[in-house]
Amino acid sequence: MKIVIQGAGEIGSHLAKMLSREANDITVIDDSPERLASITSIADVVAIEGPPSSLRVMREADVQDSDLFISVVPTVPQDVNIVSALLAKNLGAKKVTARIDDNDFLTPENKLLFKQMGIELMFYPEKLASDEIFDLLKHSTASESIDFARGKLQVEVFKLEEDSPLLDMRIAEFAAVTTKAGLQFRVIAISRGGQTIMPKFDTKLMYHDLVYIIATREGMQFLMRFLGKDNIEIDKVMIFGGSKIAELVASQLSKKISTVKILEKDKERAMALSEKLDDNVVVVLGDGRNSELLADEGIKDFDAFLALTGKDEANVLACVVAKKFGIERTIAEVENIEYIHLAEEMGVDSVINKKLITAGRLFKFTLSGKARLVKYMSGTDAEVLEYTVAPDSAITKGTLKELSFPKDSVIGGLIRGSESMIAIGSTRIEAYDRVVVFALPHAVKDVDKFFK
Any idea which fold 233-327 has? Predict the structure, then answer.
């Protein structure tokens, strides 16, 4: 697939690195020679220097022959990305997407308007991150979670601590528990020391493993009882940092819970947030890394602490401090992917990375068109994919144990009509089923072939 990425900022660079691993033909356009030098050092791409929205530069990058054009120019008004995407479409690009920074553009009528103009997807990374945080607070016992078909199937990630009943249990023993529950859940992957393991029956679950479990709604309830976990009732949230993500999260939360408190050290930004947000959002001028300030602002009375400053180290350390105050639920924004594992080791409950979230949205465009969702989960390099099964596709030609499904991938479960089920060897996939797959990156293209 020929892909042109306009913009070599954080998100553009990550996309280029990720997509080039999939044997795509990648060209990157940017007006900064320093950013282009940085991206060519980490990814196999063609770099073209030039201003955004330049027809001359676009033609030089062969946008007219591209399968996908992605406009993610950093530090410019969203109009630049929108105009670039429209120009690329008119030049001949098959699919185009644009980064935006205005939530109003994502209303159903506005999305339809831009789709009619030719832009297949507009994405707002900060909004995607805020939605992820909002969902995590609803699943307050898991490090990360995904719902399919409004929760009929759920993937949740649990970190094994010293008191976990799963500790030192082999997968075969866990399978006995799932049989008792009527095959309502199963372990689909384990992340250990930064490496992803596709479990076998003799695999033993160990201390500090991140365990990825897929379950039906009923199975998740049984699993929670087995693990001795209860969802934490989130009614008061403290946020460190007044970033755009923090503003979007606070706006969502203020309509659902009683109190949101934001700690922001920049006076001008603090005043702007205070004027914009609802009355139950309190904005405090101060540095959230200050333990005395946290104590004075009553951190012990809060149910969750979010660190969203845009500075990884500050976010992780603030969450560690919040844990020492007894906060049960901490979430940190960590944009340096190499820091994610460190943050988890230091006790941060959940990590948000807007590059990974955005990458999942865009990677879907490189697959067969049957993929409804692609999501990168922060504790692993694997991907969660949801497919709608096409009639006569390869996945329908036998039971799962009869098919040569790609190594390093697993079908976790499926939704058929109003029924959800966990997939096992004797399961036969049918046309129009919605199927959830967990796969390592090198297996994704082979997985995709089964659903064409």
Answer: Rossmann fold (3.40.50)
- The domain 2-123 is placed in CATH, from the list 3.40.50.720, 1.10.540.10, 3.40.50.1100, 1.10.3720.10, at 3.40.50.720
Tell me the H-state helices in 160-210. Answer: 171-180
| pLDDT tens per residue, range 393-448 | 999 999 999 999 999 999 999 999 999 999 999 999 999 999 999 998 889 889 99
SS3 category, 191: strand
Confidence (pTM): 0.84
Residues ≥6 apart with Cβ < 8 Å to 233: 303
The tokens describing 86, both together, are: 């429209």
Average pLDDT of span 62-86: 94
Strand, coil or helix: what is 373? strand
Mean pLDDT value of segment 216-241 = 88
| Residue whose entry in the numeric block shows the structure tokens 């007006």 | 31
Looking at residue 428, what DSSP letter applies?
A: B
Residue labelled with tokens 């630049």: 80
3-state secondary structure of 36: helix
Range(s) of the chain covered by CATH 3.40.50.720: 2-123, 233-327
436 SS3 class: strand
Give the pair of three-digit tokens for residue 430. 């049918």
Q: Which of 356, 432, 419 is nearest to 391 (CA)?
A: 432
Rg value, the chain, Cα = 23
DSSP structure class, residue 361: H
**Strand order from edge to edge, sheet including 329-333:** 281-285, 259-264, 236-240, 304-307, 329-333, 350-352
Architecture of domain 357-449: 2-Layer Sandwich (3.30)
The pLDDT tens digits of the residues spanning 77-127 come to: 899 999 999 999 999 999 999 999 998 999 999 999 999 999 999 999 999
